Amino acid sequence: MDPFTIDPRILGDSMAVTELGLCSVRLMDDARYPWLLLLPRRSGLEQFTDLEEAESILITSEIRAAAAALRSVLPFERLNVGALGNIVRQLHIHVIGRREGDSAWPGPVWGHGLRVPRETAQNTVIVEQLRFAFGNGT
To answer: Coil, strand or helix: which one is 38?
Structure first.
């Protein structure tokens, strides 16, 4: 079996936060939205239905943990969760906080404008806060 690797497009648009039981958690570098990605650490996964039954139960728990951590650091009103895979085929789950009036409201964030990268220092602070919220901060 091939080792788990992260698609270069995901690596280029996000930064590592933590490792959960099944997933690597990454913060999307887009200042417009509170946004995490969960990537199951198994090679070859493309569809949510590629997960084994026990993994699909675990990932649901990890989505809930990611949403709670995200909400504690970057508050939001609505939670959007999705796994599209239309551009990046590697299975990854989007956990996105939304606010009424955000730049894509009320539509989906995908395909709406260009990503707005944060300052490096701001990302560093957010990642550390998220690590603490997940229970593995310094």
So the answer is: strand
Task: Give me the residue label for tokens 């990605």.
Answer: 37
**Token couple for 120:** 């490096």
Domain ranges of the chain: 8-103+114-131
Answer yes or no: CATH 3.30.428.10 is held by domain 8-103+114-131: yes
Neighbouring residues of 28: CB distance < 8 A, sequence distance ≥ 6 = 13, 14, 35, 36, 37, 94, 115
Structure confidence by residue, pLDDT tens digits, 13-60: 999 999 999 999 999 999 999 999 999 999 999 999 999 999 999 999
CB 97 within 8 A of CB 78: yes
Buried b (16+ CB within 10 A) or exposed e, 44-76: ebeeeeebeeebeebbeebbebbbebbbebbeb
Residues with Cβ within 8 Å of 83's Cβ and at least 6 positions away in sequence, in order, are 47, 48, 91, 92, 93, 94
